[in-house]
Fold:
Amino acid sequence: MKRGESIIELDDIELAFGEKIVLSGLSLRIPAGEITCIIGLSGSGKSTTLRLINGLRLPRRGRVIVKGADLCGMAYAELIELRKSIGFAFQFAALFDSLTVGDNVALPLRENMRMNDAQIASTVRETLEMVGLADAIDRLPAELSGGMVKRAGFARAVVTKPEIVLFDEPTSGLDPIVTHLLTKIILDINRRLGATVVVVSHDMQSVYQMADRIALLFEGAIIAEGPVEEIRASDNPIVQQFLQGRDQGPIPL
Ligand SMILES: Nc1ncnc2c1ncn2[C@@H]1O[C@H](COP(=O)(O)OP(=O)(O)OP(=O)(O)O)[C@@H](O)[C@H]1O
Ligand SMILES: [Mg+2]
Structure:
């Protein structure tokens, strides 16, 4: 897909958990090859929106179109195939505690790719080098710092060189230096793999460093979306309150 074409389209989504409507009238187009950051209040449905993109959740109304195919009503086998082109770095890295970093990162290759052991080993090493974790290949997750766990999660998400990579809160709870490092790694993943990247983040400094576009999720829908400079210059008071992190303004707290 050419850079700039819509690779992901969420169209008039409604999604509820039981009685609770979380997303309503949400529409968003994500251009190929760029970094789109989704921002929004805690609990506003950001993780749920990412899960829609790889079919981990289905909406009760609306369409989720990824690479031209509608996920709703897709046969399970087809969804599994599509997911191979989507990497997901989860909010809580979700590594297997009993596997080394190297084995965690090798898992998607073992499951999805026809590679022999030597090819797997070299791809894992190359990917760990990209995130600066080559030295930790034989360590267990419990022996890593928070930032290293995040990086191992990134490596697992990108080891198959997916076209789309989703990052859920890649820098939350980390110090500013590690945050900066992780932000640079995400930029590198976008540039080196040419991947379309969607990042959910609260960290505005990191968002400004990496985003091509920003989308603001508020009360179930995307209320503003566009190139970073356009969003920063927005005269929407909700957007400005969020960007400036003010407690006074139209957002009910
Ligand atoms: N599996 C679930 N069952 C019931 N309710 C859920 C489930 N997952 C999420 N929710 C609810 O949906 C809403 C949106 O959750 P979501 O995790 O998408 O928000 P978020 O924006 O990612 O929040 P945070 O910033 O805290 O990570 C929340 O009110 C949450 O309680
Ligand atoms: Mg979340």
